[in-house]
Specification:
- The complex is a heterotetramer of chains A (321), B (496), C (222) and D (378).
- In chain B, helix 9 runs antiparallel to helix 10.
- Chain B is mostly helical and 496 residues long.
- Chain D has a single domain, classed as Cytochrome-c3 Hydrogenase, chain B, CATH 1.10.645.10.
- Helix content of chain D is 47%, strand content 12%.
- In chain D, the strands form 3 sheets. A 3-stranded antiparallel β-sheet of chain D has the order 1-2-3.
- At the C-D interface, strand 3, strand 4, strand 6 and helix 3 of C face helix 1, helix 3, helix 8, strand 6 and strand 7 of D.
């Protein structure tokens, strides 16, 4: 069978051409003259973004200074060596270079739960093929009981201070931590919005409490406090068994189960290190603000409808009586 | 003349041993013994010096290979700098000196603390400091990556060696020592400079080629003794290849001896440097010989494209597989020592030994002559020899990076059917040159010029035979023409 | 060049095969019908054959020679312990008529045939077959092997015996392919009596090396 | 020299994955071979019997680690046959795009792994560079790089992300130009041609009888492609032909199998571009996941008598799932899942193809059949 002219086994093709190609590859890495004289001339070229019909329609308006090269364009880290594809991992991260790959809810990273809206209905525990999710309880503030402004407290809060119950005090510097804190790079549990304490005894407007973190007992005025409760929430996730399939996220009826973008902080030495507790899998509501707000609005409407029905039933009962 | 410069190691060693013998045994009643004793201890010291020089010289090629191959593959290779001794990696500093007994480590701790505080923390690259990798490419003049060689050596020395269960114990243990000892013996007669050599017998060339040829025996022993079918096949292939390339090598070296009229390596080098004798480098007199020598040496040292026995997809590591720990370290060191020996021999035989190119004409230049004269006085001539050897090793790396690995039967066929006749032709040429053209004094310059021009023309003709019109029409070997394919392709024009 | 195989022609070709088969094996309890794939976008037809184990070898040969069924895709063994006495084991064989003929060649080079799918009909219409063979209640189920008809069925039969335990008479060098060679004879994991203890299997954490887990596993073939 | 058995594997540069090929050699030529599989048999069929229909998809992803999407789609089509689900048109187009991108990535993985077997180390890096582009596209679609869990019964998990069509067109067009580079790299290299042409002949009718399908069969000039013979999804609405190679009379050698796969990559790229143009509702519109245009209502239970099977064109051959309904939990779990792996049938045939060649040719022949041991051992 005839060989391609470049493939005929002669001295030129077998020895001279490969050696010249290798020499040029080596010379290309010399800092100044390399990229100028020996560059292969096709890495990181501007890719033709629009298809032909669109180009004829709107003309080839390039997108200003944003150069999109279909090849992954990286490594400004080592100037003299042009590496169009490799990401120098600890120094460069993929989500900085290609943000469209890490749209917040489109990436199957570590599991994250917005505890505020989780009602521990165990749908995710049943949905998981590998049985990684395990129930666990956590002291938390019932979000509906926290009216932003006193006047619109529609009397929805159903939990009051009770002896043996819990109360929470808002820690004030939470707002700015919440926006700057990024779980991917901090690799430790997210900051808490409240400090929780166990109520020992109630007397009028003051109560003696024992703070759960520090363990100190203190008597505290109930004015600025918010009632909290011990709730069963799904939390202990065995990441050693998890295969990041995302079925739990889809099965959550209350839209409070998300897959975060974190892919590298989850290693451990023993299997038990891979057990993640409620704090480690917390996702701050601010990350999925719209989903959380939609969910809260839905629940608030359901609660209000329930109240009206109860009121209507009560009024009907009182009419008959 | 290049021969005599200040770096006269042998003279100094002889003087020192003589003085010590005079002052010690010369004073006693056995004073007659001081003569042979000083000569013996001088030779003994020179052997030690040559061993140290060789070990330092072999560090060059090992480091060069690692860095150049990395550079060809667009990364920097190992960048561990000397600074990593005291900086540690990623904010973690191992205080190893605390484990030393009897508090020996304490002063080392002080020095380390001082270096850590003054020269350890910052790096010019912001990303490097962010990640805390301080040993990343320290100062360039500290040869980043050189420390890896010492790290590798200690790893080989420490690693446990597990001989295969029912290997043939005796031959298994003997094989690596045959290889490493013959390789080191080769350096006994390689002169690093006019007065830097361990021994200088008259027939040093014949001895050199004999000791160089013993390695295939060790290789075959290693292949056979490790009781592993793959290593047996690898050992056989390697022995066949080495013997196949031994004969053209010997015939080419014979051509050199004939041209220089001696069988002593130092005299060959002198012949090329001495203005009264030959004063023309042999590479210009026998370019074909130089090419043959390089090819056979690459095969002799088992480097790509001739390293079939050692690394084939289905042979895994060839005859090296069953060795580990220090035995593998010795084999690894012997591979690079043999490569260094090959480069030194090439520069001695063809590139005029330890003479700087055009040394005499540079000194004779009108204006700058003086500067060159001073330079050649100050720098010891062994440095030029080492420079040439490392350049030849650079060529070896370039060959390794670009050529395909050739199959065993193709290697043997190429060895027997092409190299052997060519080397015999080369021998005939050198005999004709020596007897017919040479008349005692320096070569008439027209002879090397003519030979070099003919060689270059031949090479260019060999390279440029390109079939232009076939290339233009991109004739492909396969015959999948677009069999009346539906024409979705037409919608995407591939040519742009 | 149309890519769509004509649906009516495919059903017609299936019916031809069924009438031929029923004519030949009328008495022996062979029942065939054309069934439709119910999912996806296309309702494609395939030939379903219910065949007693005794005549399976002959049916296979006729399919292979007469109806040009040249490809055996898969042989599956299923174990129905509680279903019914006459079907404790079932072997489902999937065959296919790939309508592949030797490509012609001129001066040593093969000329591949790319035919137009829309005009295919009759015996060169690609068809799918599903043959279900029910084996009545027995300790060691076995059916005749079709290794000699389609060599492709060779490793399928080995795998079926290895995992489900249905033997194939006339299959030379039957051996375990997917399980380790030293698996005890008689252990076929896909039989229904082997329960998967995965869900409540949490001792893995408190006793990773399994020192405490001695009770019910000793001596029993797991 | 007397004949001796040497075993290549289970850890051996030649095997792409964990399996052993016992080779009886006389000197350098091969006399007899026995393949020995089953090293990574995970019992996926047994695990699937205790999972419900949606939970099985992630396990089918992990059947073959080089082409996860094709296997999960193959299972989903069989499950849709079992549960009688009608898939919306847009979901079928999105599935086709995901499967064809995965086919290109799988063929690139094969080409990348095949060249070092023959000694050409640089091609591996070239192929992985292109595969990186394809994995980016799949990461946008499925959410991760290797195992996506992308298809659902009755549709897909999520619609094409914003800007996906634009990036996909750019990357596929660049890939079509880069294929010329592979042809330059390999067709013009003498050593590659010497090592692959005339090595590992496989006769067409022998292959059909042995059950070999896919690119290995089409290399012998046999035009059998499941997407063409039993069209599922929307393959019959797009304009394409299977890539068939004109091999020599003695059969298909390694070079023809390389040619067929290179041609198939081009066809897949063209299919993606056509699908992007022809997707109903346009590639730029975006539907929330769970939208009826993306996923249809599907029953979660399959009663006892129901069965479903589907042939699917995997980059290595014809993969197939057979599901019998009526498992425990009142039919939520399948009673039996049977998986046909193309390589489980092709490897024994490939082992027979090697008889008569040299040991140095074993990696070339075995590599050209593109074995993927994950799906072989299930």
């Amino acid at each position: 069978m005839a060989y391609h002219p470049r493939a005929t086994p002669n001295f030129r093709n077998l020895v001279v051409r490969p050696m010249w190609i290798t020499l040029r590859a080596g010379l290309r890495t010399i800092p100044v003259i390399g990229p100028r004289f020996f560059s292969s001339g096709y890495h990181g070229k501007q890719a033709q973004m629009l298809d032909d019909e669109t180009i004829n329609r709107i003309g080839d308006n390039d997108s200003g200074d944003i150069i999109y090269a279909a090849d992954r364009e990286t490594s400004h880290f080592v100037k003299s060596i042009s590496r169009p594809v490799t990401i120098m991992y600890p120094y460069e991260r993929l989500e900085d270079l290609e943000p469209w790959l890490f749209v917040p809810n489109n990436y199957n990273g570590r599991i994250g739960v917005v505890w505020e809206t989780c009602t521990a209905c165990k749908a995710c525990v049943r949905a998981c093929p590998n049985d990684c999710l395990h129930m666990e309880s956590e002291v938390r503030v019932n979000v509906l009981d926290m009216p932003d402004a006193p006047e619109d407290d529609a009397g929805l809060s159903s939990v009051e201070f009770v002896e043996g119950g819990y109360l929470a005090r808002k820690n004030d510097d939470f707002e700015e931590i919440e926006n700057t804190f990024s779980l991917e790079t901090a690799h430790e549990s997210a900051p808490q919005q409240y400090d929780f304490a166990e109520i020992i005894d109630l007397s009028g407007t003051t109560a003696s409490v024992r703070w759960t973190d520090s363990g100190k007992t203190e008597s505290v005025d109930l004015e600025g406090m918010i009632p909290a409760e011990q709730d069963i929430v799904s939390g202990r996730i065995d990441l050693g068994r998890c295969m990041f399939c995302g079925l739990c996220m889809e099965s959550c009826p209350f839209n409070s189960f998300f897959m975060t973008n974190e892919y590298d902080g989850m290693s451990g030495i023993t299997r038990d290190d891979l057990w993640m507790d409620a704090a480690r899998t917390r996702v701050l509501p601010v990350v999925h603000k719209e989903a959380v707000d939609r969910e809260l609005a839905k629940r608030a409407d359901k609660e209000r409808a329930k109240r009206e029905r109860a009121a209507k039933k009560a009024s009907k009962a009182s009419k008959e009586a | 003349m290049a021969a005599d410069d200040w770096f006269d190691v042998r003279g100094a060693v002889a003087w020192v041993t003589e003085q010590t013998m005079d002052k010690t045994i010369g004073m006693t009643r056995f004073w007659e013994q001081k003569y042979w004793l000083s000569e013996f201890s001088a030779e003994f010291a020179m052997a030690g010096i040559i061993f140290v020089v060789t070990m330092l010289a072999v560090l060059g090629p090992v480091w060069m290979e690692r860095k150049l191959i990395a550079r060809l593959m667009d990364h920097r290779g190992s960048t561990i700098a000397i600074r990593s001794l005291w900086t540690g990696e990623g904010n973690i500093r191992v205080e190893w000196w605390k484990d030393l007994p009897f508090g020996i480590g304490v002063p080392i701790g002080w020095i380390n603390g001082f270096l850590w505080n003054n020269f350890g923390n910052e790096s010019s690259n912001p990303k490097v400091t962010q990640v805390g990798n301080r040993s990343y490419a320290g100062w360039w003049w500290a040869l980043p990556g050189m420390i890896n060689n010492f790290a590798d050596f200690t790893k080989f020395a420490i690693k446990e060696h597990m001989p295969p269960r029912d290997a043939d114990q005796v031959t298994y243990e003997v094989a690596p020592f045959i290889i490493i000892s013959t390789t080191l013996l080769v350096f006994a007669f390689i002169p690093y400079g006019p007065s830097l050599y361990a021994a200088n017998p008259d027939l040093s060339l014949v001895y050199m080629m004999a000791i160089f040829g013993i390695a295939p025996l060790g290789v075959f022993f290693a292949g056979w003794a490790s009781n592993n079918k793959y290593t047996l096949i690898g050992g056989m292939r390697s022995a066949a290849q080495l013997t196949a390339y031994e004969i053209p090598l010997l015939v080419t070296v014979l051509g050199i001896a004939v041209l220089s009229g001696t069988l002593n390596i130092i005299e060959i080098a002198e012949f090329q440097m001495n203005n009264t004798l030959g004063s023309v480098w042999n590479i210009f007199l026998m370019p074909l010989g130089a090419a043959l020598f390089l090819i056979t040496m690459i095969a002799e040292v088992e480097r790509t494209p001739f390293d079939m026995p050692e690394a084939e997809a289905e042979l895994v590591e060839g005859w090296w597989t069953e060795y580990g720990g220090m035995r593998w370290g010795l084999l690894f060191a012997s591979e690079y020592l043999r490569a260094l020996a090959a480069c030194l021999l090439f520069s001695l035989f063809f590139l005029g030994g330890w003479e700087f190119p055009f040394e005499d004409s540079l000194i004779a230049l009108p204006l700058v002559g003086g500067i060159f004269g001073a330079l050649f006085q100050v720098v010891p001539h062994s440095a030029w020899l080492l420079m040439k050897a490392w350049l030849v090793f650079g060529f070896f790396i370039w060959v390794r990076a670009s050529l395909h690995r050739v199959r065993t039967d193709q290697i043997l066929e190429f060895g027997w059917r092409y190299l052997l006749p060519l080397s015999v032709i080369q021998l005939g040429l050198s005999i004709w040159l020596r007897l017919g053209v040479y008349d005692g004094g320096p070569w008439p310059l027209v002879v090397p010029a003519l030979i070099t021009v003919v060689a270059v023309v031949l090479f260019v003709v060999l390279v440029l035979d390109e079939d232009e019109e076939a290339l233009a029409e991109q004739r492909r070997p396969y015959h999948v023409s677009e069999i009346n394919k539906a024409s979705p392709g037409a919608r995407i024009n591939l040519e742009d | 060049m149309g890519m769509k195989v004509n649906h009516e022609k495919q059903v017609a070709a299936a019916n031809d095969v069924i009438t031929a088969l029923e004519a030949e094996f009328s008495g022996e309890g062979l029942s065939c019908e054309v069934r439709m794939h119910a999912g996806g976008k296309h309702q494609r037809s395939y030939v379903y054959i219910d065949c007693p184990p005794s005549i399976w070898a002959i049916v296979a040969e006729t399919l292979s020679e007469v109806h040009a069924v040249d490809h055996c895709s898969m042989i599956t063994g299923i174990h129905w312990p509680e279903k019914s006495p006459e079907m404790e084991w079932q072997v489902v064989v999937h065959l296919m008529r790939m309508s592949v003929r030797n490509p012609p060649s001129n001066e040593g080079i093969v000329m591949p045939i790319i035919s137009d799918a829309s005009i295919l009909q009759g015996s060169d219409m690609p068809l799918e077959f599903e043959v279900s063979i029910a084996i009545p209640e027995t300790r060691n189920p076995s059916i005749p092997s079709v290794q000699h008809v389609w060599v492709g069925a060779d490793w399928n039969e080995k795998e079926t015996w290895d995992l489900v335990g249905i033997d194939f008479e006339g299959h030379n060098e039957m051996r375990r392919v997917l399980q380790p060679h030293e698996t005890p004879a008689g252990f076929h994991p896909l039989q229904k009596q082997h329960k998967l203890r995965y869900h409540e299997f949490n001792e893995m954490y408190d006793d990773a090396q399994g020192f405490a887990r001695k009770s019910e596993d000793i001596g029993k073939v797991k | 020299m007397a004949e001796m058995w040497i075993s290549m594997g289970p850890q051996h540069p030649m095997t792409h994955g964990l399996w052993t090929l016992k080779v009886k050699i006389d000197g350098e030529t091969i006399v007899d071979t026995i393949p020995d599989l089953g090293y990574i048999h995970r019992g996926v069929e047994k695990i699937c019997e205790s999972r419900d229909f949606t939970q099985i998809t992630p396990y089918c992803d992990r059947l073959c680690y080089a082409s996860a999407n094709t296997w999960s789609h193959s299972y989903i089509y069989a499950a849709e046959n079992l549960l009688e689900v009608e898939v919306p048109e847009r979901a079928e187009y999105i599935r086709l795009i995901a499967v064809e991108i995965q086919r290109i990535a799988s063929h690139l993985m094969w080409l990348g792994a095949y060249c070092p077997d023959i000694g050409n180390l640089t091609a591996f890096v070239y192929c992985l560079r292109e595969r990186e582009m394809m994995l980016d596209l799949l990461q946008e679609l499925g959410g991760s790089r290797m195992h996506y869990n992308f298809p659902r019964i009755g549709g897909v998990k999520r619609d094409l992300p914003h800007g996906f069509a634009m990036r996909c067109r750019a990357k596929v067009k660049l890939f079509l130009q880069r294929i010329h580079e592979y042809e330059a790299l390999l067709d013009e290299s003498t050593i590659f041609l010497i090592r692959t042409q005339g090595v590992g002949y496989a006769k067409p009718e022998e292959m059909v009888n042995h059950g070999v399908t896919g690119p290995n069969l089409r290399a012998g000039g046999v035009n059998y492609d499941v997407r063409w013979a039993h069209p599922y999804s929307v393959y019959d609405e797009l304009d394409w032909t299977p890539s068939v190679e004109r091999s020599s009379v003695k059969g298909a050698d390694c070079y023809d199998r390389y040619r067929v796969r290179l041609d198939e990559m081009k066809t897949s790229a063209e299919l993606i571009l056509q699908a992007l143009d022809g997707i109903p509702g346009g590639a730029e519109t975006f539907h929330e996941s769970g939208d009826p245009a993306l996923i249809a209502k599907a029953p979660a239970r399959a009663s006892d008598g129901q069965t479903g099977f589907h042939h699917f064109e995997d980059p290595r051959g014809e993969s197939m799932f057979y599901l019998a309904g009526g498992g425990d939990e009142r039919g939520k779990n399948p009673y039996r899942v049977s998986i046909r792996s193309p390589m489980f049938i092709t490897i024994p045939y490939a082992a027979k193809c090697m008889i008569g060649y040299k040991i140095a040719d074993v990696p070339a022949i075995m590599g050209s059949f593109d074995p993927c041991i994950g799906e072989t051992d299930r």
